[in-house]
Design brief:
158 residues; alpha+beta; five-stranded mixed β-sheet
Length: 158
């Protein structure tokens, strides 16, 4: 990898760590998580990725995060890499990417239609469909704050 490209990748990963910290900290504050148990205070780039570790670029609960900060997008190849890494560590794949002077975009798997309420209020079951969605940074981090809260509530903190 060219030095400029590697530096850009590191910068992108550091930006993404900051986004996760900004999202996670208010949730930890709300739940009064003790400082020594806060994931946000220990969050950093996954340096082991360069030695063959397949756990993603940023290690957060639930998602295997692959970060791409590039001028040329290779979304199918990046998504395949992300899926393979997520499968190997038992997490959900998340690809966060952007180009120079652009906003971060996030690709995740979303589930469509497992229950739909009819007009009379009954809930109908339908076969679900998992699709890859490309969403904005704001949409994702609003969602992640809710998911992270559920995760923290499910983990014992004493």
């Amino acid at each position: 990898m060219a030095k400029r490209s590697q530096s850009k990748g590191k910068r992108g990963e550091a930006e993404v760590v900051k986004l996760f910290v900004e999202c996670m900290t208010p949730v930890e504050d709300k739940l009064n998580i003790p400082d020594d148990l806060r994931i946000s205070t220990r969050l950093q780039r996954n340096l082991a990725q360069y030695s063959g570790d397949a756990s993603g670029d940023v290690d957060v609960p639930i998602f295997c995060v692959e970060v791409k900060f590039a001028d040329t997008f290779k979304l199918p190849a990046w998504w395949k890499q992300c899926e393979d890494q997520a499968l190997s560590v038992g997490k959900k794949p998340m690809l966060i990417y952007r180009g120079a002077r652009k906003q971060w975009r996030i690709m995740v798997v979303t589930r469509l239609f497992d229950h739909i309420k009819s007009t009379d209020g009954r809930s109908e079951s339908y076969p679900s469909l998992d699709v890859v969605s490309d969403i904005s940074r704001l949409q994702f981090f609003e969602y992640y704050a809710k998911v992270y809260e559920v995760f923290l509530r499910s983990v014992k903190h004493d």
